[in-house]
Design brief:
Largest sheet: 2 strands, parallel
Distance between the termini: 38 Å
Strand order of the largest sheet: 1-2
Number of strands: 2
Strand content: under 5%
Radius of gyration: 20 Å
Structural class: mainly alpha
Number of helices: 15
Amino acid sequence: METINRHKSLTTDFQTLFEELKNEGMLEPSLPHVTHRLLELFFYATLGFYLVIQESMLLKAVGTLVLALGQGRGGWVVHEAGHRSLTGLPKVDSFIQAAFYGCFGGLAGKWWSSQHNRHHAMPQRIKRDVDLDTLPLLAFNTKIVKNPKLGRSFFIQNQAKLFLPLDTLLVFIYWKFYLNPRDAIKRKSYDDLFFMTVHYIAAYYIGFVPYLVSVWLAGIYSFGNFSLAHTHLPVTTQPMHWVEYGLLHTMNVEPSIWCNWWMGYLNFQIEHHLFPTIPQFRHPLIADRVKRLAAKHGLPYRCESYTKAVSMALKNLEHVAEDLRHG
């Protein structure tokens, strides 16, 4: 009964806050903001492609870096479009998601939505959150490893060292060349297949080495940043309140001009998990009220510096490997 009453109170306060934010226009899109973000991606794609096809090795190298940055930052735009919080128009957001995820990443938007929505529903819940399904390359928590032999494997035991320089590339290759094409074909998702084809036509002209290096760097950028919010936090097997999932199993990274840009405002992961349909650039405007909601109900509101968050994510990988080695 105590849990039921606590959840009722939490639900009431959460719904009240949501209505306040809605009435204040926090859910409304910003056309200038959307235009700026899309033009930024077109700039990276155009400049990167132009540089990488030049004869100069220096220009090719710079172009490769620009393409990698474009792929990574395209991921932030696709993420927001996938939540239908970019333009506020579901069909337009769906098109942007398919077009940019396909053209920039060579990946399928519908596959992304099917996976990411499950993560959002129950972050860090075993057998529910697909972001925990990382074996055999990674184990973010000892509880997901049922086979002791697997826990002592080369990849798991060296995961802190391999995560950024190798695992991210292997995952992207698996996604790009097998998992996503297969999923798009099974779904008969012809728009995803078309945009993915555009991506690989561009890759042909870019060249194998610059393309592979750009994918590798984009993987480090994307997976490295996504790992900061959840991977080092406790897992659960129990159902809980939506707000509890967002606060107990999610962490923010301290805001700053550069960090907000670098992480596409996804350093406000708590706000994003509680209010995924609010445009992400507005998360800084609602953070104080989310903190008050957490404090009122005795729930944590975690926020660490970027360097501390990176350290926590990597040290967690070390600790998990050590526990599995001696477990």
